[in-house]
Amino acid sequence: MRILMEVTLPHEPFNTYVRNGIAGKKMSEILEALKPEAAYFTERDGKRSGVIVVDLPEASKLPSVAEPWFLIFNADISFRVAMTADDLKNADLESLGKKWADSELQPAGRR
């Protein structure tokens, strides 16, 4: 299951790690352990942030990707399931539409 992790790093302890020259090392260690498909770093609401894509075999693996950020950086994390175009194609939306569409519940312009 592909997961989009949004990591928000509070100013502390990150500023202290930067001053001590270990912020990059700690982030590299985490990313090496996670083996993400992609990792992008940016600013969000005035804080250092990252968007990290990981592919997990099962939901029980969520703590293994979250805990390093929580424990080392006191980070806030949100998770979202992410699908590729092929995943969406394989979702069989047409069958779901037929199964769950109820013409009485459709907006007036769509009946």
Description:
- The protein has 111 residues and is an alpha+beta fold.
- The protein has one domain (2-110): ACT domain (Alpha-Beta Plaits, 2-Layer Sandwich).
- The chain is 41% helix and 27% strand.
- It has five helices and four strands; from the N terminus they run βααββαβαα.
- A four-stranded antiparallel beta sheet has the order 2-3-1-4.
- Strand 2 (38-44) and strand 3 form a beta hairpin.
- Helix 2 runs antiparallel to helix 3 (62-73).
- It is elongated, with a radius of gyration of 19 Å.
- The mean pLDDT is 92.
Keywords for this structure?
single chain; 111 residues; alpha+beta; Alpha-Beta Plaits; 4-stranded antiparallel beta sheet; 5 helices; 4 strands; elongated
Secondary-structure class: alpha+beta
Low-confidence runs (pLDDT<50, min 5 residues)? Answer: none
Biggest sheet: strands, sense, closure? 4 strands, antiparallel
**Overall morphology:** elongated
What strand line-up does the widest sheet have? Answer: 2-3-1-4
Q: How many separate domains?
A: 1
CATH class: Alpha Beta
User: What is the subunit arrangement here?
Assistant: single chain
**Through-space gap between termini:** 36 Å
CATH topology description:
Alpha-Beta Plaits
In terms of DSSP E residues, the strand content is 25-35%
* Mean pLDDT figure: 92
Give a short summary of the structure.
The chain contains five helices and four strands.
